[in-house]
Amino acid sequence: MVKLVLHRGGCHCGAVKYEVDAPENIDVSECNCSICSKSGYLHLIVPKSRFRLMTKWDNLEEYTFDTREAKHLFCKICGIKSFYIPRSHPNGISVNVRCLNDSTIKSITIEHFDGKNWEDNMHKLRPLSEE
User: Is residue 129 part of a domain?
Assistant: First the structure.
């Protein structure tokens, strides 16, 4: 079993803050779909039980498109998307590793994902794990 540590993160202005339990050696996915590539998002997907929003949900604005399954959440003040509910794992939270405080991160390994061709590649995504 992988040891989990407490990571803290949030948006640029501080109106959105959260905690997430994840390994100190983080494996992330870099997707080339339209929204992820434009925002520079690095996905760390965790079960909702390992994510805690420390500020009010009222500080967030939601954006959906195409299938409307993914719930993209942005800070109402600074516009940063520091986490969201992904289409691939609706029972999880995708945390943008670029929005985590780096003091608890030992290493980051980036795996590229071809989200431009979602339907052909979604089977390659790792299942959500409680580990």
Answer: no
